[in-house]
Amino acid sequence: MDIPGDEPDLDAQIAQAQSEIASGAVVAAVDRLQALIEVPIYDHRLHYARAAALGAVGDREGQQSWLLDAQTFHALQEISEQDGVDMGRFVSEPNYALQIGDRAYAEGKMGLASAAFGQVAPQPGAPFNVIMRWGLSLLHQGRIPEAITAFTLAADTFKSSMAHEFLLYACFFADDGVRLHAAEARRWAELYAPAPENRPFANPDLKGRKLRIGYVAPTLLRSQLRQFIVPVLENHDLERVEVFIYCADPATEVGIRATTVRGIGALSDADAASLIAGDGIDVLVDLWGHTSGGRLGIFALKPAPVQAAWINYVQTTGLAAIDYVLHADGTRAADDDELFVEKIWRLGPIAVPFRPGERLDPTPTPALTNGHVTFASFNHPARLNDATVAAWAAILKGRPGSRLLLKYRYFVDPVLQQALLARFLGQGVTAAQIVFEGHSTGPDYLKSFGRIDLALDPSPAPGGTTSSEAVSNGVPLLTLRGPDFYSRIGTLRLEPLGLHQLVAESWDDYVAKALALTADIPALDALRAQVRPRFEASPLRDEAGFTAILEDAFRQMFERWKATA
User: Fold this and answer.
1) Who contacts 243 (Cβ-Cβ below 8 Å, separation ≥6)?
2) How many whole angstroms separate alpha carbon 246 and alpha carbon 511?
3) pLDDT (tens digit, 9 = 90+) per residue, 421-474?
4) What is the mean pLDDT of the segment spanning 537-548?
């Protein structure tokens, strides 16, 4: 094979190798790339192509190794090409490298950020905040094993409960993530949860009085909770219940409907627990979990006789002091009990209502007019594991000319883009079928739903708010019923609507359904026309009905406690 001596020839050789990989001529591509690499030519494109080739032959370990090299070389090249960057200072002055990393992070370019933070974070004596930013920049690229390593380093070195909670979040996306998370949650509780105070509870029975419910979260109105919790707060029967909100700052919750709103942001866990106990709360509900800003330390002190976890954290908290976690019927799986410290309380077909924000008028299936099918995912890159990429690639190969729109704030990063393209190429899909977009808001974001023919849910870490938004905007969503409770969350956006045909039972079924749904565009358009009306008529929109179910569940929990107290 002739070795190219200039850049145009190198471009042609890389393009030829990519074409060979996509067409299945992987051996020829490997030989071509090996000859180029042995020159050596230090070009990240060669490493991406080699990673793709190894992925095509099923060598996952080799693929990951070459992909890591490609990402490193690519990030350093991107950094070196930025105006005013001095690479000599970058490799010799830690503070300078961190400045570059901070700038890249702020721009959403996580590949560049992790390369910059990686100059400092793994070194002995690295500051806590640097290690954490390194871990987050890796997580936001979907580099889960590396992110877990970073968060473990921060948690163990600094004995940090907060770092350990970021580690718990990273576990969501790891292989066998629910089991890994369950073990780590228990370890977190052993390390950081104080023993519950042996406080006597004097809560009287409910005859002749209102049930006192307390909700705990740093903020309800300025977070992802808003679309889920406000419908409940506005429908609580204040003739039968008293509602207490415990948030960081009541000024952020102006207009919220509750009996009492208290600020606990400046209070220690012990002082906040004393305040809550003094309010005589019957059922205390955590809405935040191990997410940054959460106050599980308060729950560890057991300030209320009944405690439950809900909405933002469907996994186990690891805390024995929390009695229940609230789930829907549809997430039930065989191994639920062993994964949870808490008891699972099932609320019926949904675990929480969803109130959509501003929406545009429904639109027809775009494939009717643009001549090709557009699949899409608006999910965090961490959710796009190898099984998901393989399934989506099979769909794209089975629907020639189709596109996959990947939209999220971090997809502006050139390193993340090229790494993901290499993974798709290893499955036989070329860059021509993948479209990346970053963050958008307002009408621009809403218009994006009008460009989707079929939304694709990842697995085993399905979408959350993004999936709810897709369905509420009338977009058909295809999801997989996975083996555990977490991988079944996507079914809750569809089965309560009666859209059982959009729930797949295996990856093969998932691919087959995607191809069948997009084989008949008029039929897909007819299905699309049903999605939004079905959503509006579903339990997800029955805010008053769900809130009555929730209140009854809390009342039963309290009465069970009272019967044994």
Assistant:
1) 213, 214, 215, 233, 236, 257, 258, 259, 260
2) 45
3) 999 999 999 999 999 999 999 999 999 999 999 999 999 999 999 999 999 999
4) 98
Q: Mean of the per-residue pLDDT values for the chain? A: 95
User: Beta strands of 368-476 (E only): which ranges?
Assistant: 374-377, 403-407, 434-437, 454-456
- For 43, left (φ over 0), alpha (ψ -120 to 50), or beta? beta
Question: Encoding tokens for residue 552?
Answer: 């009854």
Which of 226, 208, 212 is closest to 260 using CA atoms? Answer: 212
CATH number of this structure's domain 87-192, picked from the four choices 1.25.40.10, 3.30.70.100, 1.10.510.10, 3.40.50.300: 1.25.40.10
* Torsion angle of C-alpha atoms 223, 225, 227, 229, degrees rounded to 10: -140
pTM tops 0.85, yes or no: yes
* Topology alike, domains 87-192 and 211-353+545-564: no
| 3-state helix/strand/coil string of 238-304 | CCCEEEEEEECCHHHHCCCCCCEEEECCCCCHHHHHHHHHHCCCCEEEECCCCCCCCCHHHHHCCCC
Is 309's pLDDT higher than 70? yes
Cα separation of 49 and 525, whole Å?
38
Go through 369-393 and write b for each residue having 16 or more CB atoms within 10 A of its CB, e for each that does not.
eeeebbbbbbbbbbbbbebbbbbbb
What homologous superfamily is domain 367-540 in, according to CATH? Glycogen Phosphorylase B; (3.40.50.2000)
315 token code pair: 């996994």
Q: What percent of the chain has pLDDT over 70?
A: 98
Q: Answer for the pair 459, 428: CB distance below 8 angstroms, yes or no.
A: no
Q: What is the pLDDT of residues 269-290, one digit of tens each?
A: 999 999 999 999 999 999 999 9
The residue assigned the tokens 């070389």 is: 73
Query: What residue ranges do the domains of the chain occupy?
Result: 7-34+44-66, 87-192, 211-353+545-564, 367-540
Largest CA-CA distance found in the chain, in angstroms, rounded: 90
Cα 189 from chain centre: 23
**According to CATH, what is the number of the domain 211-353+545-564?**
3.40.50.11380
